[in-house]
Design brief:
This protein is 19% helix and 29% strand. The protein has 442 residues and is of the alpha/beta class. It folds into four domains: 16-32 and 207-354, Molybdenum Cofactor Biosythetic Enzyme, Chain A (3-Layer(aba) Sandwich), CATH 3.40.980; 42-55 and 173-205, Alpha-Beta Complex (Molybdopterin biosynthesis moea protein, domain 2); 61-167, Molybdopterin biosynthesis moea protein, domain 3 (Molybdopterin biosynthesis moeA protein, domain 3, Beta Complex), CATH 2.170.190; 365-441, MoeA, C-terminal, domain IV (Beta-clip). The strands form seven sheets. The protein has a six-stranded mixed beta sheet. Residues 214, 216, 218-219, 231, 233-236, 280-284, 286, 289, 313, 333-336 line the site of adenosine monophosphate (AMP). Adenosine monophosphate is lined by residues 214, 216, 218-219, 231, 233-236, 280-284, 286, 289, 313, 333-336.
Length: 442
């Protein structure tokens, strides 16, 4: 990561990095845990470090289908001899199949048939692939005067390397070795690893309860008819979807008018039932923007306004319910792109911390501007951009539509370009920092 942001509060609010840090410093990490089965653990946050309870693999076993033998028994001068009276013949004295270990003795110069995953008897140390042996079926009497049933023998086509094709006990994990850290989100591979260790029940952090609501007299819900000047409430749909992907238990508190009395009542009702309340709209400085005043009245403001574009009107604080339990409050800007950008830069890392996960601040990568980017100094600009991978490296160009009101610009772009706070217009060929489009918006 570069020093792409500045931490000095400016006329447009505090810097993004400072806001992110303040969030992570103010918010407690999760405490409530529960036990779930592996089948219910996908996307849950692990609440304890996991150590391997036994060595993996638990026993020496074969990586190939073939024959297991003792490398010290190999006579190199009699390998692959076509004269069967001279070639070293290995009696096959038993077999070890996956799930059915060989339990007998293996005499000097003898071998056993083994399949992939079959346990290697302690006395043996090497596996020869079946492609590298010649099989000899013959009456035992021909070789040693014993005319019992037919005996199988093999001869080796080439000298094996001692220890070849053997997976040694504990070579992947030793007993007590740390495997997964608390705070890991359990995906398919992590679940597979837990299963490998025989762990059926896992401790995870309890889901956080997050409420969402929208404010704005002009908002109508999809399905309703629009009056002149109205528009549809899309932010709440976006937020519900992200919060669901994040693994929170989401409660939708609907829509509230730009009316401080109604807002106060709804904020208080919501705060008594959820851990976090996310509200979009009304957080700027217009006459109808009451979110900040209501928040200050019901609790306290941690910070307000972040020096970034889009996303300047953003408020973080808390509301305390009657029992004194804090409900963390996030006031997101109403403009759809501003809501999306503050959601990924500020809300998501904050919620990750609250749900016990390691907070993921979006990572930036160096790139070259393939077009001009218009910018005024004083704020960090996060502009929607198209990304190209060329022989010279990664380049980014501005998408045509760049208004914070246009959700289509987020769909068209496949990256955000972070143009640092003091920077002005960016010319083609200049170095920039790019953030690939977050998986939240896939
Ligand atoms: P505000 O932050 O309340 O000043 O709103 C800024 C702009 O975003 C206005 O044009 C609003 O109509 C629009 N807006 C506010 N809330 C939403 C929402 N939930 N969905 C879509 N647009 C919204
Ligand atoms: Mg509004």
């Amino acid at each position: 990561m570069s020093d792409h942001t500045h931490t000095i509060p400016g006329p447009f609010g505090i810097a993004l990095a400072q806001a992110q840090q303040q969030l992570l410093d103010s918010l407690p990490t999760a405490e409530r845990t529960e036990q779930v089965t592996l089948a219910d653990a996908l996307e849950r946050v692990l609440a304890a470090d996991i150590y391997s309870p036994f060595p993996v693999p638990a026993a020496n076993n074969s990586a190939m289908d073939g024959f297991a033998l003792r490398s010290a028994d190999v006579c190199p001068e009699h390998l692959g001899d076509t004269d069967t009276t001279k070639v070293q013949l290995w009696p096959v004295v038993g077999q070890s199949l996956a799930g059915h270990p060989f339990r007998g003795e293996v005499p000097v110069g003898a071998c056993i048939r083994i399949t992939t995953g079959g346990v290697l008897p302690d006395a043996l140390n090497t596996v020869v692939m079946q492609e590298d042996v010649v099989r000899h079926h013959r009456a035992a009497s021909e070789l040693n005067g014993n005319d019992q049933a037919e005996q199988m023998y093999i001869s080796l086509s080439r000298a094996p390397t001692s220890g070849q094709f053997v997976r040694l006990r504990g070579s992947e994990l030793s007993t007590g070795q740390a495997v997964l850290k608390q705070g890991t989100v359990l995906g398919p591979l992590q679940l597979g690893l837990l299963a490998t260790l025989g762990i059926a029940i896992v401790p995870v952090f309890a889901k956080i309860r997050v409420g969402v609501l929208s404010t704005g007299d002009e908002l109508k819900q999809p399905g309703e008819a629009l009056q002149p000047g109205d528009l549809y409430d899309s932010n709440r749909v976006v937020l519900r979807a992200v919060l669901t992907r994040l693994g929170a238990t989401v409660t939708d508190f609907g829509w509230v008018a730009d009316d401080p009395v109604a807002m106060r009542a709804l904020f208080l009702q919501a705060a008594s039932t959820v851990d976090v309340l996310v509200c979009s709209g009304g957080v700027s400085v217009g006459d109808a923007d009451h979110t900040r005043a209501v928040l200050a009245e019901l609790g306290s403001i941690g910070f307000w306004q972040v020096a970034m574009k889009p996303g300047k009107p953003f408020a973080f604080g808390k509301i305390s319910d009657a029992a004194g339990q804090p409900c963390w409050f996030f006031g997101l800007p109403g403009n759809p792109v501003s809501a999306v950008v503050t959601c990924e830069q500020l809300l998501v890392p904050a919620l990750q911390r609250l749900q016990g996960q390691t907070a993921q601040i979006p990572q930036l990568w160096p790139a070259t501007a393939a077009s001009r980017f218009k910018k005024k100094p004083g704020r960090l600009d996060l502009q929607r951009a198209k990304l190209q991978v060329t022989a010279e490296g990664v380049t980014v160009s501005a998408v045509g539509l760049d208004s914070s009101a246009m959700l289509t610009s987020m769909l068209e772009g496949d990256a955000l370009v972070h143009l640092e706070l003091p920077r002005g217009d960016v010319s083609q060929g200049e170095s920039v920092w790019l953030q690939p489009k977050s998986p939240w918006w896939r």
